[in-house]
Amino acid sequence: MNNSFKNQMLAVRQLDKRLKKWQILRDEDGKLRAGWIKILRTTLHMTAQQLANRLGVTRIRVYQLENAEMEDAITLRTLKEAANALECELVYAIVPKGSATLETMIETRAKQLAKEQMDRVAHSMSLEAQSLDADFQRWMLDNLKNPELLDFFKNELRQSKSLQKLIEKLKKKK
Length: 174
Description:
Layout: H1 3-29, H2 36-43, H3 48-55, H4 59-70, H5 76-85, H6 102-127, H7 134-142, H8 147-160, H9 163-173
Helix pairs in contact: 3-4, 8-9
């Protein structure tokens, strides 16, 4: 298997490991009833006026910021400024939904793209009375992660320059 591909997959797995920590935090805390600004402000026994003084805004503006955070209508810059005024640091992440990993997302996307490509080829082959049966298509999609098949697929595609010819060879190989 290609070293570049191995390195990419290693990087994906390492990033997945880091993102898992964020997913756990998200699952434990979910969306807060009050936003982080208000929770931290009140936990630190700070009035809205005191935070306003630190931010250089009015007390009313602090309430607006707290409401904007709850409505997902606040910018990262504003959150960062509020965090600094609270003597905190803004930390954020984008994580896969649910319990998904980047690796499974990549795999799902690869299968989706392969299926779309296979459907186009199958259509053109069926016009020439050489249709792909459903079992073969399923076998191809199920074996996408097989490194030997991937290497074979890449080499044959380079040589034949035609997905249709490659599929015919794969049918014989199967």
